[in-house]
Amino acid sequence: MSEIHQNQRVAVLADSQNLYHTAQSMYTRNIDYAALLEECVSDRELTRAIAYVIRADAPEEESFFDALVDIGFETQIKDIKTFADGSKKADWDVGICLDAITLANHVDTIVLCTGDGDFTRLCHHLKHEGVRIEVACFAESTAEELVEAADSFRDMSSDTDRFLL
Fold it and tell me: What is the pTM of this model?
């Protein structure tokens, strides 16, 4: 795949739930989305930055959503679903895949900010379509097959002072 160059059109797709849970479980800290976006774009042309978030009716979440927009992310918001047995579920896997496939004809590079190995097949498909795939997440929680499927991997664990608040 192509190397990084200044005229590359980049889309950044951030799986906020995956990032949040990893940052909390490993470091008890939050993600610095401004630093993450800056690193992912790397002086290239940002076409779209989308953060996929879950509304769980937590008091601080609306200010978090607003902060993402101020940083430069569009937010895709999904309400958490509670089932009759009390279990809860909400994920954006299908939404992220659909957006990535839709964006593939409009960008040179897609940066997936997630460690979820379920996106491995998406990486193979996008690379087949001629899109450069980069993954940014914490190495300890990133599926090895996702790292192998990507053209490059940014380990956020290597610079926690930059990527965590």
Answer: 0.92
